[in-house]
Every structure is written in structure tokens, then in C-alpha cells.
Write a structure and sequence with these properties.
Layout: H1 8-15, E1 32-36, H2 39-42, H3 45-54, E2 69-73, E3 87-93, H4 99-105, H5 110-118, E4 124-128, E5 136-142, H6 145-154, H7 156-175, H8 184-192, E6 203-207, E7 211-217, E8 222-231, H9 240-254, E9 256-258, E10 261-268, E11 278-284, E12 287-298, E13 304-314, E14 319-328, H10 335-345
Parallel strand pairs: 1-2, 1-3, 3-5
Antiparallel strand pairs: 4-5, 6-7, 7-8, 8-14, 9-10, 10-12, 11-12, 12-13, 13-14
């Protein structure tokens, strides 16, 4: 996705309001996006394209939940309160002549409009803290609607990840505002030669030479993260079936519905055809990894829920790491729970990435 840095100044100058140095904090819930675009284009192919991308079903959940909760706003109704939402998208094409489109184009300075029209290869611009602190704004623009749709379709994954990453950054700030449980960080450094930030409120459940488990239980949900590891032997360990087999072996050994009944262990749900176990290769904190997501259950079918994991190698140790977050929250929306667990997993650092402890 192109970020048109030379034009940031032009756009932000037009967007900023008097007293911008004292911006209010951005409002709204995690996962909310407000889309500002002309009503004609919202009801047409451009609106349907954006809606299908940001309100697509989030993979790996037991029930249908959209990746983002997106709400369309008519530019003529964009008031002071709505401008302060945490995530905004402005979409407009220069061939649209309606009042709503003209109002969005007024967001750009005349200088930026001329430069954008002169360069048809520029389609997007991101900016932070435009109307509120800790706010993310994405501008999408093109000469014609067909061109903008083509660009959006080609960059849909990048746009979704762009807002996902921003939500993880915000969650990282809020999750660790109260600190971390004492003792866990030094233990992970000493025993596992790794680092993962566990938020305050999570408790250490179990620690073994090859396994670490932390958990937070409240009346609404049960949130869990664990680390498992073994010697790295070959690239075959990253294959989907190998990951499932390793996960199931760890669950059978350590994760039970009832600790007094070791036969009630967790396992990977592979029998629901419309909810398959999904894997993909990606860069996890700048190292090769395989992400796996799907559903888990207990072997006696009394519990279940979604999980998300990452597998990678600590080359300095020659160790294969598998880290996972899973939840049990029946009857509840689970998108934001999984986003929280993903945020925790992304704090993981291997032995070579850990900063030396301060004296």
C-alpha cells in the first residue's frame, strides 16, 4: 500500500481545525471504523467493495463476526463528534460531482489536489492525529471510481492489516497500563531465554522446561496464552499437519478441562468442514513464521472456542517455538478477545532480540 508522504502536509493542513495542539482523545471501541464517502458511491460498486473488505468474516471464529465494525457516514453529517472517532476512512474520486464528494475534496488543499490530479499513480494517504489524539485516518482517492476500486481490490489485505496493526499498538498501550505480574518476565528470560509481556490480571498456571501457561479468568471469559518449544530439526515442522500434531501433543500433556481428570484434554477441532484450520506464512516481528488459526475443543465435547498461534525458530538456541492464545467465552463475541490475545503474542522476543537487563 502506497503512503504518499510528500502530500501529508497538504492534507493535514486542510484537515486540522483551530486549537489542534490540544486535540481531544479519539473515541470509539477497538475494531470500529467510520467510512466517509458520498452517498451515491456508497450505494454503488465503490461502497460495496469497501464494505466487503472491512466487514468480511474474521477467520478462525466459531460464529460469524466481521473483521471490523464499519459504519458509513454521509460527509454532510460529519460533525465534531464523529470526526473524533479512532479510525476514519475518507474515500472520493475526482470525477464525482455530488455535494458529498465536493465536501470530501474540500479536505484537500488546492495545491494537493493539483498534484494528485497530475500524478494518477497516487491513490492513498495515511495520517495520524488529524482530528483527535491517537486517531488513524486513511484517505483513498483516484481520478475515476473504476481506478479506485481496482486499487482497493489489489491492496485489500494491506489496508486491513494497516488498521489491525494500529489496533494492536493501541491495545499494547492499554493492556500494560497497569504493568505486568511480578516474577514472570525474569522467569521467562532465565528458563526460556525469551520474552513475552503478560498483562496484569493474568496469572501463571504452569511452568515446565518446554511449556509455559498464563491465564485470566473472569465471569465473562477465560483468556489463555501459552508457549511450547522443542528442538528445531527441519522445515517440515512448519507444515500444517506437523503443527496440529505438535499442538495436540502439548494439549494432551498439559491442558485439561479438569486437572483432576487428565483424560479431558484439549485438542484441535479438525472435523468442522466449514471452519477449517488455516495456516499462512508471514513475517512475525521480522522473522519467518507460520500463523495458524481455527477452533479447539475438549475431547469430551464439553468446551470449545477459537485459537491463534505463531510458530518460528530461535536460531541462536536452535529451538522451535509455538506460541498460542485461545479463549473460552461461549455465547460472547470473540473478535476483540482474539485481537487482545494476538497483541500479547506479538510482544514475544527470542533470545537474540531481548535487550540486556538494566542494573
Amino acid at each position: 500500500m502506497k503512503y504518499v508522504l510528500p502530500f501529508l502536509l497538504f492534507i493535514v493542513v486542510a484537515c486540522m481545525e483551530p486549537g489542534s495542539k490540544n486535540l481531544p482523545p479519539a473515541s470509539g471501541k477497538s475494531g470500529d471504523i467510520f467510512l466517509i464517502m458520498d452517498s451515491v458511491q456508497w450505494k454503488g460498486p465503490l461502497g460495496r467493495t469497501l464494505d466487503s473488505i472491512f466487514r468480511a468474516e474474521m477467520e478462525g471464529l466459531p460464529r460469524k463476526e466481521a473483521i471490523f465494525h464499519m459504519r458509513w457516514i454521509d460527509p454532510r453529517k460529519l460533525n465534531f463528534v464523529l470526526k473524533q472517532r479512532r479510525n476514519l476512512i475518507f474515500a472520493v474520486t475526482f470525477d464525482q460531482k455530488t455535494q458529498g464528494a465536493r465536501q470530501i475534496r474540500a479536505t484537500f488543499t488546492p495545491e494537493s489536489l493539483e498534484q494528485l490530479k497530475a500524478n494518477p499513480n497516487l491513490y492513498s494517504q495515511n495520517a495520524r492525529d488529524v482530528f483527535a489524539k491517537n486517531q488513524e485516518v486513511l484517505f483513498l482517492f483516484a481520478q475515476t471510481e473504476a481506478e479506485l476500486i481496482q486499487y482497493i481490490q489489489a491492496n485489500s489485505n494491506k489496508m486491513v492489516e494497516y488498521f489491525n496493526q494500529r489496533e494492536r499498538e493501541r491495545l499494547t498501550t492499554s493492556l500494560y497500563k497497569s504493568g505486568q505480574p511480578k516474577g514472570i518476565a525474569p522467569m521467562l528470560r532465565k528458563e526460556f531465554k525469551c520474552e513475552m509481556k503478560i498483562p496484569f490480571g493474568y496469572q501463571l498456571v504452569q511452568q515446565e522446561s518446554d511449556f509455559f501457561w498464563a491465564r485470566q479468568i473472569n465471569p465473562y471469559d477465560d483468556k489463555d496464552v501459552f508457549i511450547a518449544r522443542k528442538k528445531y530439526t527441519s522445515q517440515a515442522q512448519f507444515q500444517r499437519d506437523s503443527l496440529i500434531a505438535f499442538r495436540d501433543a502439548i494439549c494432551k500433556q498439559y491442558l485439561f478441562e479438569d486437572p483432576e481428570r487428565p483424560e479431558t484434554h484439549l485438542l484441535t477441532e479438525t472435523t468442522v468442514l466449514h471452519k477449517p484450520i488455516l495456516t499462512r506464512e508471514l513475517s512475525f516481528n521480522k522473522k519467518f513464521a507460520v500463523e495458524m488459526k481455527g477452533l479447539w475443543k475438549t475431547n469430551n465435547l464439553t468446551m470449545g472456542g477459537p485459537f491463534l498461534s505463531f510458530a518460528f525458530v530461535d536460531e541462536a538456541q536452535g529451538m522451535f517455538y509455538y506460541i498460542e492464545g485461545f479463549t473460552f467465552s461461549p455465547g460472547k463475541d470473540q473478535r476483540e478477545i482474539m485481537r487482545e490475545l494476538e497483541t500479547i503474542l506479538y510482544t514475544f522476543k527470542t533470545s537474540s532480540e531481548i535487550e540486556p537487563a538494566k542494573d
